[in-house]
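Table S2 (text version). Query chain:
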Amino acid sequence: MSDMRMQEPNTFRNVLRREGFPGGLCMPSDADVAERWRTLAAEARRTADELTDPEAKRIMLSIAEGYEVLARRAEARKKDHKDSK
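Corresponding structure-token output:
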């Protein structure tokens, strides 16, 4: 019988860990999360620059903007956390 392992569910924490955030159950700081979202946005924009299909380019740029929105939200959480102390 083969060794069947259950795949981790795609929770936010597990996705971040797979995408390069170590730390087991520790969540990265909001600054680290914002930086990672911005890195992904830059990668999406670079990919869009290489695409020749206009619709694919538009979709990739939309994905990049979504990552930027997530980065701004992470920064806002960090600011809100600082302000509440």
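Notes on Table S2: Helices lie at 12-18, 30-50, 54-83. Residues 28-83 form one domain.
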